[in-house]
Design brief:
The protein is an all-alpha fold. It contains three helices and no strands.
């Protein structure tokens, strides 16, 4: 007996909470990134020579830590957010 193989697909629309979580997961890092760019531009030469490389290293280490620890890097994003807010005095 030959068995016919069919591809099983599952289709379901996303709920409002799932859409909110996806937007939040994409939006929070983008907001922190934009705040970092704003901070770096406000500090002119000091920002490009010190803050920019330091923030880049923090982003890289936070990403690497999140992958190696198998956890979310939400705390790293929150730390960067607070750092940039403190630097811009908002």
């Amino acid at each position: 007996m030959s068995r016919k193989e069919e591809t099983l697909t599952y289709k379901q629309n996303m709920s409002k909470t799932e859409v909110f979580h996806v937007i939040k997961a994409i939006g929070c890092p983008l907001i922190v990134f934009g705040l970092g760019i704003f901070t770096i531009s406000n500090f002119a030469n000091f920002g490009t020579k010190l803050i920019c490389p330091a923030a880049g290293i923090m982003w890289f280490l936070g990403f690497f830590d999140a992958i190696s620890a198998k956890r979310s890097f939400k705390s790293d994003i929150n730390y960067l957010h607070c750092l940039f807010l403190h630097l811009t005095r908002i």
